[in-house]
Amino acid sequence: MAIRQLSIFLENRVGRLASVAKALGDAGINIRGLSVADTKDFGILRLIVDDVVAAENVLRSHDTVCQINDVTAVDVDNQPGGLAKVLTALNEAAVNVEYMYAIAEPKGVRPVMIFRFGDAKDAAMAALQKAGVHLYDEQDLLGK
After folding, report:
1. Coil vs helix vs strand at 100
2. Given 16, 49, 98, 127, which is the most exposed site by the fewest CB atoms within 10 A?
3. Is 78 in contact with 110 (CB distance < 8 Å)?
4. How far is CA 102 from CA 21, 28, 57, 61, 89, in A?
5. 47-73 core/surface letters (b: 16 or more CB in 10 A; e: else)
6. Any residues with CB less than 8 A from the CB of 140 and at least 6 apart, and which?
7. Domains (ranges, CATH) in the chain?
8. Signal peptide position in this chain (predicted)?
9. What whole-number distance in Å separates Cα of residue 77 and Cα of residue 85?
């Protein structure tokens, strides 16, 4: 099960994050989760939005470099060791996590983690399912 995520490449300067948020907000697109990684000169903004194709079109129309990537969203037990359970299943399947971040999901009491696995996506999903970890699809996560 894949969730489509936008990866946006931004110059690391005042106002760039605000301009992306404003463009999406003006287009009626809701940001459901995000992560920002930066260096001195540029940053990568990763977004989970309620309409990824429309968001990509809006951003490209504002000359913003972006691409759509597949990521995996999973439930994590909201207790000590919850994240360790998920990561242990991936480790036992020899799956490398390229990056991960949490998103707020007010519909439930369990945190939702977003993972990017690269070429090992199928092995990762099989390992997580075997470990009893709930995987989301876009309809389940975003209510589409």
Report:
1. strand
2. 98
3. yes
4. 19, 23, 25, 29, 18
5. bbbbbbeebbebbeeeebebeebebbb
6. none
7. 3-70 (3.30.2130.10), 71-142 (3.30.70.260)
8. none
9. 9
Torsion of CA 64, 36, 109, 140, to 10 degrees: 30
Q: What's the token pair of residue 59?
A: 């951003």
CA-based nearest residue to 88, from 129, 136, 128: 128
Tell me the one-letter amino acid at 16.
R
Tokens of 15: 């106002």
pLDDT digits (tens, 9 = 90+) for 15-24: 888 899 999 9
Global pTM exceeds 0.70: yes
Output the six-digit token pair for 68.
């759509």
Whole-angstrom CA distances from 138 to 5, 60, 74, 126 are: 10, 22, 12, 18
- As a whole number, the mean pLDDT across the chain is 88
